[in-house]
């Protein structure tokens, strides 16, 4: 994790929340000159400062999560200098940074997370190219997820061509190490992008592919079947859509008994009610759509209730209410 990546993330998050450097310094009881140096990449951030900014911004520890301790910084630097001697600690440190980036995406605008994500992604991809030994496959999984996350952010920002390129790369990396959960999630994001493009046939295709990817988690299969059903309904294949909804409903109990996969930590039973709502909206069952989307939004954890990606579900709820 580079100091200027933290600076970029924190500076953009403060801006999104209406804080100038002076206002943030005053609110956190830090010297404005010190905070300015950190936010301009001229001084290394302390963990204490990162936690104070998290408290100020309500980012749930995400900024603190991207600040590596001295040991982890040294470990990562050694691996970057000599990738053939990659160790488990380096992979764990990079996975922790990625997890923090993903949590930031739940609280700040995608464009604020995108530059640092792409910069860090390129470093991880470069490290993977030279990596050898027993920890390489685990690094390939982290790299796949980093690339996938970059594609997701680009999809939200509607940089469509580059988003598709990264998502395809993420699928290839996931397939290389046989990780169906990661491959399914990248396919899911391709389905999301197709929905933003207004291409229901592609929505059905990519979500169906995600649902039937070997190794996908039951909660992924459930959500992907429902979103594929919405696409099928929109192109007039109502019977096939209903069959997929039935298949998804049969997975509900199994999925609810398992914790969601780390790469899709948001896939709780409550979240999949949002997907059930989208399927019902596509099937013109507007009352059911309203019930499921309303319950799904209400059931989101506090830190996700105002996540930027919830706009799509709120828009679907408005459409269902208007048509009911």
TrEMBL record:
Q: Which GO terms describe its molecular function?
A: DNA binding
Provide an example Pfam family for this protein.
HTH_31
Q: Where do transmembrane segments lie in this chain?
A: none
* Signal peptide annotation: none
User: Which named protein is this?
Assistant: Helix-turn-helix transcriptional regulator
What PROSITE patterns is this protein classified in? Answer: HTH_CROC1
This protein's source sits in the domain of life called Bacteria
Segments forming domain HTH cro/C1-type: 11-63
Q: Which SUPFAM superfamilies match?
A: lambda repressor-like DNA-binding domains, TPR-like
């Amino acid at each position: 994790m580079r100091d200027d990546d933290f600076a970029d993330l924190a500076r953009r998050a403060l801006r999104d929340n209406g804080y100038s450097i002076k206002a943030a310094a005053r609110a956190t009881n830090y010297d404005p000159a010190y905070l300015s140096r950190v936010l301009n990449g001229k001084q290394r951030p302390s963990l204490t400062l990162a936690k104070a900014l998290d408290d100020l911004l309500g980012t749930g520890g995400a900024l603190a999560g991207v600040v590596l301790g001295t040991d982890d910084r040294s470990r990562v630097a050694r691996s970057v200098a000599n990738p053939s001697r990659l160790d488990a600690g380096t992979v764990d440190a990079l996975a922790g940074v990625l997890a923090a980036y993903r949590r930031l995406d739940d609280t700040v605008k995608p464009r604020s997370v995108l530059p640092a994500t792409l910069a860090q992604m390129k470093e991880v991809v470069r490290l993977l190219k030279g990596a050898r030994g027993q920890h390489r496959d685990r690094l390939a999984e982290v790299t796949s997820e980093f690339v996938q996350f970059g594609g997701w952010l680009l999809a939200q920002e509607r940089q469509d061509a580059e988003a598709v390129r990264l998502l395809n790369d993420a699928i290839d990396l996931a397939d290389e190490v046989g990780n169906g959960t990661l491959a399914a999630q990248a396919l899911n994001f391709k389905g999301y992008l197709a929905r933003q493009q207004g291409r229901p046939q592609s929505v059905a295709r990519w979500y169906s592919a995600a649902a039937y990817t070997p190794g996908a988690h039951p909660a992924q299969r459930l959500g992907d079947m429902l979103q594929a059903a919405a696409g099928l309904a929109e192109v007039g294949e109502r019977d096939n859509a209903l069959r997929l909804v039935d298949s998804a409903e049969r997975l509900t109990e199994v999925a609810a008994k398992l914790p969601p996969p780390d790469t899709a930590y948001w896939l709780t039973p409550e979240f999949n009610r949002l997907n059930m709502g989208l399927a019902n909206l596509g099937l013109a069952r507007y009352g059911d759509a309203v019930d499921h989307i309303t319950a799904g939004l209400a059931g989101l954890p506090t830190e996700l209730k105002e996540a930027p990606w919830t706009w799509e579900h709120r828009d679907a709820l408005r459409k269902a209410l208007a048509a009911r």
